[in-house]
Amino acid sequence: MPGLDPGGILSPVKKPLIIVESPTKARTIKKFLPRYVVKASVGHVRDLPKSTLGVDVENDFLPRYLTIKGKGDVIKELRSAVKSATDVYLATDPDREGEAIAWHLAELLKLPDPKRIELHEITKAAALAALKDYHHIDMDRVNAQQARRILDRLVGYKISPLLWAKVRGGLSAGRVQSVAVRLIVNREREIAAFIPKEYWSLTALLARAEAGTGPGADVTFSADLVSHGGKKLELHSQAETDAALQALEGAAYRVGSIKKREVRRNAPAPFTTSTLQQEASRKLKMRVRRAMQVAQALYEGVDLGASEGTVGLITYMRTDSTRISDQARDAAREFIVAEYGEAFHGGRRYAVREGAQDAHEAIRPTSVLHTPERLAGHLKREELRLYTLIWERFVASQMSQAVFDQTVVDVTAGEYGFRATGTVMRFPGFTRVYDEGKDEESAAKGRVRLPELNENEDLDCRKLEPKQHFTEPPPRYTEAALVKALEENGIGRPSTYSTIVETIQARGYVTQQERRFMPTEIGTAVNDLLVEHFPKILNLAFTAQMEGDLDKVADGQEDWVTLLRRFYGPFSGELEEAEKRLPRLELRDEPTDEICPKCGRPMVIKTGRFGRFISCTGYPECKTAKPIVKETGVACPKCAGAIVERRSKKGRTFYGCANYPNCDFISWDPVVTQRCPVCDSYVVSKTRRGGVTRLECAADRTHHVEAESPDDKEPVEA
Predict the structure, then answer these.
(1) Is the pLDDT of residue 13 over 90?
(2) Which of helix, strand or coil describes residue 3?
(3) Contact (Cβ atoms closer than 8 angstroms) between residue 413 and residue 205
(4) Is the dihedral of CA 323, 329, 332, 338 positive or negative?
(5) Distance between CA atoms of 360 and 392, rounded to whole angstroms?
(6) DSSP one-letter code for 365
(7) Cis peptide leading into 215, omega within 30 of 0?
(8) Would you say 611 and 508 are in contact if contact means Cβ atoms under 8 Å apart?
(9) Residue 571 CB neighbours (<10 A)
(10) Is 299 labeled as catalytic in the residue annotation?
(11) Segment 233-269, tens digit of pLDDT
(12) Distance CA 47, CA 150 (A)
């Protein structure tokens, strides 16, 4: 009931207030905690100023925080909610960034004693437990975040003006992003310097000499030439291969030795942020940034209907720990035994990687009973695909080993030795649910069944197949491989990987071709300048050490101001020297075969503040410019021009005609090549709720359209 205030006027009953960052998270919590008021800060509320350094380097690096532009209404609403609250709980994300947001909220809202709670999963049980286990804001975490923010600001705001003056306007440097660019530049140079070496293989197609006429009597198997005279043999040329072929003419092939052994494969650990990003890239062809956006939606909550309401489906998605709770382990055991049988349960515990933070669990489903099949009708296509990956990986991590029988057969042919390897699965174990992807997919050589053979048994050689090969350079980084390299080198932390990957592309320092990174000319030039004049900033070991020092600050073992002093002294000296010695670089614009439609001069690719774009060489007299777009290979239904993939101002992908503005065709769904068989309208690939993708007539969605090929069923990857 309403109560009476001192003036005798009816006033509403006060409720406790929970403040989170995300409106989605707020809506989820409201539904299962109706007795609480839940508000969202919509991310950060204060930050360093954009136009100035905002750090007093002469006064212990005192930061000057300003209220973020456009947050006035949000802050006003929060202040009003605080006034009418019995208690205030700050439930921002359970990491350093979330801790800093909680501290900024406490400062801005003048909260004398805020209660900090951490939600590692957005479920009613977890929220109620967190409300009982509140604590004070962890200032060590806050100071670690402040130190990182100030380090990045010092590097960015001190080096970027040098690049503007000496290279080109609009460029910028980043403490961690520049190191990522260096990895890509170094790999490109390894590829350019690589000299292919020729080598040959010689494979014998063999069969049992006396196989009889029963089932499998004529089974052949392959064996590779591996030795000569009992020593390892490598063929480096066609001449060496021809000599071996000549020596093997008329040779008698016989089984030498047969070795059999049991091989076991352990289940992979549950996902960390890094391994989730890598696997989503490999298996789902999902961009790192997109994977984190989808994971955020799964964490913050999805409406599962009247029976369960809105609930967070996965634990917090920024973590580098493989630990899982005892309750989750017990639930997984019950599920595995009931679904697959006792033999499939493994219950393995995973050691936390050295240097990893163990504040959070691994990424896992909040309930193993929320199977992908049960959620198919409630999740969008991308959500279901990523959730399935997380669910399968978690369940598999608690399953038994996969067991294989491996047979190695050595075959003699005169002085030459051949070897055949066969692997047959005896027990699937965790592979019943999940198998890990690979960066460089290769043929599963050796996973074949060999015929039953006996030692000293004669064999028939049906064919000798020589093949020329060349060694290959190291591959360019995919997003998955780059994230893996960043983690292995200690560069960045789980919360920063996706930002690093996006930033280096947005700045025009790298591009992707066939999903692999290549440095641009300007990216290489800026990298070389920074390596020469700021060697520490671009040093992998130094950057990794800095991450370790920030971890020490978060753990209360290091003073954040001392860390900044230790960094800034040598850095300011390098900066002073660079200002004197940094040469002026003249970079050529990348030519294209396009001609300016307004003045007839050639068009070139330039790099600006927001990335690469096509511009007229007549600038500034002619200001013709256009974005670089991705072609889809589909003709425009309106004018027969090319359909290209574009981005709206808000970042949403759409598909439009390359002849814009002369042709205004636009579609929010990917357009495919075939036409509607009923009305001849164009057809789009539409993803409906629940993750179901199908082809639909754009004019009449009731018209049924069959895909001409499997590729037409999938929308174009953004």
Answers:
(1) no
(2) strand
(3) no
(4) positive
(5) 20
(6) B
(7) no
(8) yes
(9) 20
(10) no
(11) 999 999 999 999 999 999 999 999 999 999 999 999 9
(12) 11
HSE (side-chain half, CA atoms, 13 Å) at 331: 15
How far apart, in whole angstroms, are the C-alpha atoms of residue 641 and residue 659?
6
With beta carbons less than 8 A apart as the criterion, state whether 125 and 102 touch: no
Token reading at 15: 């409720």
Residue 250 makes CB contacts below 8 A (sequence gap 6+) with none
Structure-token pair, residue 433: 């649910």
Question: Strand pairing partners for 260?
Answer: 407
AA identity, residue 549: D
Q: Residue 107 and residue 154: Cα distance in Å, rounded?
A: 24
DSSP letter assigned to residue 591: E
Give the C-alpha separation, 70 to 612, whole Å.
29
pLDDT tens profile 635-665: 898 888 888 887 665 456 788 998 888 898 9
CA 203 to chain CA mean position, Å: 39
Residue 167 CA to residue 379 CA, distance in Å, equals 48
Helices (H), 167-325: 177-193, 238-247, 273-284, 288-300
Tokens 């075939």 sit at which residue?
674
Exposure of 410 in the CB half-sphere (CA atoms within 13 A): 14
Length of the chain: 718
The pTM of the full predicted model, rounded to 2 decimals, is 0.78
Query: Which tokens is 58 given?
Result: 């002469």
Q: Tokens representing 288?
A: 């790192």
- The average pLDDT across 20-40 equals 93
**Per annotation, catalytic residue among 316, 340, 387, 477:** 316
Higher pLDDT, 687 or 351: 351
Q: What is d(CA 154, CA 354) in angstroms, rounded to the nearest whole number?
A: 29
Rounded to whole angstroms, how far apart are CA atoms 272 and 285? 18
Q: Element (H or E) spanning 482, and its range?
A: helix 479-488
Going by DSSP bridges, is the β-strand pair 220-228/671-675 parallel, antiparallel, or unpaired? unpaired
Place of tokens 């905002």: 54
- Sign, CA dihedral 234-240-241-247, equals negative
Task: Report d(CA 42, CA 598) in Å as an integer.
Answer: 44
Given this model, what pLDDT does residue 359 score? 63
Q: Report how far apart, in Å, the C-alpha atoms of 248 and of each of 244, 367, 515 are.
A: 6, 62, 45
